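Problem statement: downstream parser choked on a complex file, so we are re-checking the raw output for the AHM run. The parser issue turned out to be on our end (a line-ending mismatch), but while we're here, posting the original submission so the record is complete.
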Amino acid sequence: MKKKVITLDEFIIRRQADFSYASGELSALLRDLGFAAKIINREVNKAGLVDILGTTENENVHGETVKKLDIFANDQFMDSFRSSKHCAAVASEELEDIVVFDDDRSKNAKYVVAIDPLDGSSNIDVNVSVGTIFSIYRRITENGPCTIDDFLQKGSEQVAAGYIIYGSSTMLVYTTGHGVNGFTLDPSIGEFCLSHPNITTPDDGEIYSINHGYRWNFSDGVKKYIDHCINSDRSRPKPYSMRYIGSMVADIHRNLIKGGIFMYPTSNDSPNGKLRILYESNPMAFIVEQAGGKAITGLYRILNYKPESLHQRCPVFMGSKNMVEKLRECLEIDYAEMSEDQLAQIKSSQGV
Ligand code: AHM
């Protein structure tokens, strides 16, 4: 017997009914995100035709200026949030400051959204998967227009988070803190359909993902863990595989499903790592934890980190529980030689 297809919109509405106190605002916001993602998917799929249809500086055959895809994605999400009355403000990777919607409809909305509209966009030219990452918080300021304080909350305060991966197929994966569910876009009907219910990540994995090119800049602890992955081959039935696409959503999505660890540590060149807390590390950490994995900055949980600025970065290690625990064990050597003061500084910067 054929299984009934459950669309994203249907699923969101069903889940809303599970919470008697739900007012439907979060559900509506999630549906708006899903709709914007379909439009971005359409443009990402046309990316190879850019030289035919026109480049950023050029006009396309219709006489319209063609925008770079990351700007296009940003504008698309902004329009969608602006016209939805459920989002009071947005922080985007593409914009220096938050955008506050202070019209009568939006200014008292309950939620704010942090978004990376097109993560890994440098990969588009070569047909590698890219993604959108989003994170939703309940605002903490009362009434009136939002402020930056509404965004500078710990990741553990997220009410929902998710990503869209524009890959060999397009998927939307999200959590509201009650497990993780994945939806694949069926282009024939233009709907995201539930394809991966209740995603759980294996406790152990076969894959480690890190940019090996920076190896000599990593801390001793990180080098120790990489050595463990390379050298433990003999004691394991199958060696670890190193897989690194350089597109965070794609790397983490693969590891989430297959089991593995994703790492973007600090290095001499980037003392705070590269990935941004608000719209990269936190949402992905929320999903990984909800799927049964772990996500840390080094000693501590990513979701405990309270950012002090919008575009702040943090080191990231996330994935299968046992792999992250082993990594953490290796990192102890980085902290063993630190003074009490240095440790206290790390603790306070990581919200411990
Ligand atoms: P971007 O915001 O410029 O797209 O950079 C973010 C991307 C992540 O998707 C990915 O994990 C990382 O940068 C890769 O960086 P690197 O090339 O330094 O390994």
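For whoever reads this later: The chain has a mean pLDDT of 89.
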